[in-house]
Amino acid sequence: MRKVFASGNIAVAEGAMTAGLKFYAGYPITPSSDLMEYLAEELPRRGGVVIQMEDEIASINAIIGASNAGVKAMTATSGPGLSLMAEGIGLAVITETPIVIAHVMRAGPSTGVPTKTTQSDIYMVRWLTHGDYIIPSFAPWSVQEAFDLTIKAFNVSEKLRTPVFILSDAILAHVWEPLVVKEPGEVEIIDRKMPKSVEGYMPYLPDEDLVPPMAPFGKGFKVLVESLVHDEKGYYAPNNEKYRQLVTRLNMKITRSLDWLFEYEGFFLEDAEIVFVAYGSVARTVFALAKQLRSTGARIGFFRPKTLWPLHEKVMRETIKGRKIIVVENNLGKLGMDVERILCDKEVYKASVLNLESPTLKEVKEAVMQWL
User: Fold this and answer.
1) pLDDT digits (tens, 9 = 90+) for 285-335
2) Where does 263-369 sit in CATH, by number?
3) pLDDT digits (tens, 9 = 90+) for 144-194
4) Which superfamily does 2-186 belong to?
5) Where is the Pyruvate flavodoxin/ferredoxin oxidoreductase pyrimidine binding domain (predicted)?
6) Residues of 111-146 as b/e, b for ≥16 C-beta within 10 angstroms?
7) CA distance 18 to 183
8) Which of 173, 177, 230, 245 is deepest in the core (most CB within 10 A)?
9) DSSP 3-state assignment of 73?
10) Left, alpha or beta for 162 (phi > 0: left; psi -120 to 50: alpha)?
């Protein structure tokens, strides 16, 4: 391992390379552009390829193709770019193509304020495309966690054959902090499951874990990548039985792994009467406020989900015991709606800090005090 000083975007890039990234395709867009710039210098030195595509539509389809060719692939973007990737991400879901998308949130709607921050895209990464599906999403709050959760994102993507988001924002992308860069032999790296034999191979026939082994192109396997509802061979199957079977399996392979997928951090929860819930860069300020209020004797707890989707509802109900829950986020209360649903037996309040900058301690305090 080596100790460096890095930004959040560099940490994601380093984490991706540690996880085995070999192909990156992207299009420059603030505030994710320097992630691609860093990889353009570093990834070719480590045996990988970086291509600047003509747009985000080409980028998402290029990494889907590279993944099907057998390499770990990734792109990075921000709000307007992710909008263009919606159709391609749907293709990756139904063809069970492992890819990682680093999404750096910026202010919107539309082009909004390209250089400013937000947390308004958390439902976008959850329900970007049409149909029934679950795309795992991880939200780091530090440079070190951006590195660590990027490795986790690649491991989840390869193990479950699914797209995965690493969800950052303009603040975290460009904050600089100490980073411990771990080498591949120092962390767990998961590679996709290969079929045992060419004979009888069916590209969508799952094992007991509901995940089919994935053969790359050009190795003698009969591979069919089909975007229509398909059977185990990949042939179009427009009937109720195959549709239910496919869509149910696509979701269940994710939910079955919920104990492994869901990561969180809790502080001062044992005696908490009031629990703050926050994620990403905003959680840093909320945690500081929780510590400040506890120093005055207030029984304040803090719960921070690192995994935004899927949420582990059982863990949240068992862990968050306070009578009053205050969800603080830089949007109009999106995660708050899910917390309200999950913790329906408690008082749940949404404290929005809608702000183009990283909210100050004073601003967060003003947002929560009306509920205290």
Assistant:
1) 999 999 999 999 999 999 999 999 999 999 999 999 999 999 999 999 999
2) 3.40.50.920
3) 999 999 999 999 999 999 999 999 999 999 999 999 999 988 999 999 999
4) Thiamin diphosphate (ThDP)-binding fold, Pyr/PP domains (3.40.50.970)
5) 14-240
6) ebeeebbbbbbbebbbebbeeebbbbbbbbbbbbbb
7) 6
8) 173
9) strand
10) beta
